[in-house]
Amino acid sequence: MARFRRISFAGSRNREIDSRQLKSPAFASPYAGLARFCYHAGMFTGLVEELGTITAVVPQGAAVELSLHAPLVASDAAIGDSISVNGCCLTVVRREGDVLSFEAGSETLSRTNLGRLHSGSRVNLERSLKVGDRLGGHYVSGHIDALATLDRRLEEGPWAFLWFRVPAELSRQLASKGSVAVDGVSLTLVECMADQFSVALIPHTLAVTTLGQLQPGDAVNIETDLLAKYVQRQLAFVVDR
């Protein structure tokens, strides 16, 4: 078994750590589970850092290469870094100044709204979490569970209330006052029904994310809370006994 593994949460650039370090006191902390989870992946907090603009979508067989303009996120990006693009954890494959390029395979395109992007589309961007960063949202893996559709939008002054329709199988992972990531944005659930949930968006969120431009019928990427997934899985084992 290889002694060294690649981990990306410890900085803006992936680094290799000795697997024996995971048993050291430094990893006997709330970050221990996060460290183990982050092998070969990034971890995010659901706070959008920048709105990027798609500059090119190049088909590559069943996959595509996405290029986007993002001066802030690109400022310290390196090839191999993990970036959340509309909530999807993608790897930087090329950097040319303020333009970053990523590859999205057929599985990603079928499960997310990345296949619907075109030149000029805006996307929510977030760099992977670093140890010591403030966790202003909630733990977001960048692994999309399903697409949801905006069913209804209600404006109340500067606020907006949005209702999304989701696959029924995800309903057990959603709870009022719990967390959900919508296109990579960490949000608090207001209402949860059999196949719908609602959120309330403050003016700041509407201004600095793509959610401000959503209209009924638009598809968004949904990632339910990691803790909810683990609880549901453990309960399934209890029921099976």
TrEMBL record:
General function of this protein: Catalyzes the dismutation of two molecules of 6,7-dimethyl-8-ribityllumazine, resulting in the formation of riboflavin and 5-amino-6-(D-ribitylamino)uracil.
Reactions listed under catalytic activity: 2 6,7-dimethyl-8-(1-D-ribityl)lumazine + H(+) = 5-amino-6-(D-ribitylamino)uracil + riboflavin
Name recorded for this polypeptide: Riboflavin synthase
Species of the source: Anatilimnocola aggregata
Keyword Repeat: yes
GO biological process: riboflavin biosynthetic process
Any Pfam family: Lum_binding
Assembly, per entry: Homotrimer.
EC number, as in UniProt: 2.5.1.9
Gene designation per UniProt: ribE
KW Acyltransferase (keyword) present: no
